[in-house]
Amino acid sequence: MAKRIAKPRGKKERNGSETSTHAQPTNGTHPTHAERNETNHTTKSSNGSNLRECKSKKTEEIDEVKAREGIQGMNRTPIQIKVRKTRFVDWKPGAVSAIAAAPNQIHLAVAREAGDGKSCRAVEVWETEYWTQVMEIKAPHVEEHPNTRHGNEPDGGGHGEITGLAWVQDGSGKYNTLVTSGLDGMLVVWNLQQKKIVGTLEAGGGAIWDMTCHPARRKNSTGGEVASTEQDGQPSQIACACDDGRVRVFAYTPQGLEFRKVIGRAEGRALSVAWQGDHSALAVGTSDGFIRVYNTQQPLGREAVCISLGDCCVWSLLLLDDGTIVSGDSNGTTSFWDPEFGTLLHEFNQHEGDVLCIAASTSGSSVFSSGIDSKICSFEKVEHEPGSCEWVYTDYKRTHTHDVHSLAIVADSIFDGGAIVSGGNDTQLFAYSADNFSSFHPVRFCRCPQLPNMSIAGTQEDTQGTIITVQRDLCVEVWQIGKKQEKAERSRWPVRLPGREASSSLLCMVDSPARHPIRCSAFCPKSGILAISDTCLTTVSRLDKRNNRLKHKALLGTFPSAFAVFITGDGSKLCLHCTDGSIGVYDIVTAQRDVSLIEHLAESETCRDFSEEVLVSSMNKKWFAITAEGKRRIHVYNAERMEYHGPLPCSWESLAPITALAFDEDGQHLGACTADDLFCLFNVQERKPSPWTTNHGSNVSRRLEKVSGLAHRLSFCRTQHALLAMIGTPKSVCVFDLNAPVTDSDKVSKKRKRSTGAKDAGDANFKVLALPEPCLHVSLAKETELLIVEKPWLDVLESFPPPLYRHRYGT
User: Fold this and answer.
1) Within a 10 A sphere around the Cβ of 666, how many other Cβ atoms?
2) How far is Cα 306 from Cα 71, in angstroms, rounded to an integer?
């Protein structure tokens, strides 16, 4: 009996006609039981063959897509990643003591105190366009390193707190030099190109309570602002308020700091000082409650106005362009004074404690004050009619938790009209809108300042633990991170918090030989060679393993000081990024310089005056890369032949500096992240972006824009079915697979899920993990293992001095 085999219901023929699911007899009668079984068997066989044909066609289509987009492993399986967290690093950042903006408004200098007895005072330089840290210079430790300012390596002064910071011109007419003052009575000169202290000078009047430079900005005939020292062709003038009640004026020349004259004499201490815009007057605030204004046109400075504030200390002073004197005292009062007669114009008691700092907007129509109560108060000038105006209090913000020590005005790309930058004992830096103070929320620079330089050196073969080096200011520590629990953390792709706690043990600690600040370090576990470079020299030592500990065995040699260092795979060569910008390749045994690599040095005028370039090497030690032109270009070298491989194309780059750079495990690809959230994966051998970057790099960049903080860590991990990439910020971790596409979907599932700390943005290949505590280091240590080094912020707060007590409701 002939039968017509029908296809399942819902399936359509190519012409669109729908057929029945059951087989019908040709004679119109109902089929028997045997006929029905035969029909079902034939239907199943036909359906199976049709499904196999559909699957084969679908597989061919997927293969075509893979070949066209360069993607492998699209049909991936969920990957389990073990999260290992540890808190072995004793992280104590230093308080912000002074802030100063460069005259060109491109850079911002920040002075920090030593966080603890093992750290040093430091000066940071930030770019205001992207709010990224350009460099950090450490001062020598004074406790073990005596004062040698008459020798070759000046120290960083004594133990006094840094009270003033100023930009000065060097011999070339550029602002590549900083001068700081402290309560130890010393003036310290920091050279940004050499990245170290180049000179010190004792003021001769005891402690320096405040310091100011000749006004860095002055309006010209066209309305723009230029540096007055550049216009006049005169050296930078520095005025120091000293403990003996006098003001000492110094000039910075190509030969260094030179004493010029002494101005004034007060019964108490000189606590604050401020220049007039046209360099014609100098105001001084004292501890006996007086403000004295001196005419600097006279040889010794004749006193023009004397203002009495009563029983208080004048901690801060400011002279506006119209001559108005603004003062902040220990009574919490912000006062505005007439410059001609010294009469009080306006007085505001908005602070609950001492007013320590005052700043004004570029236009001079807004004034900001802050101090011990951590409030940033705003005052604006209101004009009622031509020639008649008054100052009014507008608003305040309390973003800091502790005392605020310094305020500075700077032009930036976040707020129109400039920004007010504040810093204090809580180590944080915040930016506020100068023209619209009440309308915009403040912006935090970085959640984790002064992060220790940590890197994974390798794996212990006997214990399978991860070797990680922690570079501190005066020593280098080598730690082993082991496994406290062997059971893996089972979770959805890719990770889940919280993870397992990892055990840690200190293998060795090697101090800097001369107790100078360490610039860079490198450790090779295979050969046991440790290289440490400070501001004076680079020392190479061999470490020997004894009883699960590393002991200092021998000093192999000394080499010139460097900004970056790495050791070749066989442990025979040492590559140093020298102070002249070149890369020197040294033989560790003979200590002779074999090769000098200079192809990465920029010859164009776009090269930045100063910047800390980044040097990274692949794990197989076949390649190494270095940034140039202010971290805006990348150059690759062959580490085996010590030859220049070439620059990476700059067509992908924006004007933002590179914040993270790393090779993958095989050294075939190089990943880079920039300050404007751009991610790119390069093919090292071909020196061009990979096909994956061409197709999906823009989607990753759009995802990174939604992640809080700048990328500062980048690492890769290759598994059997995936190539994982990890991008870490101080607040979060992003993980995605480079063998699969990343979409730009913003759809969020409305289903309620268990809180795992991961933010799902609609794409299973891009996961964001919010970190509750500050993340000091994060990397893919081994296959499918994520190592997170964190530090609870409450533990860090215990090291800060107590803030001003404020009664809170209900307590």
Assistant:
1) 14
2) 77
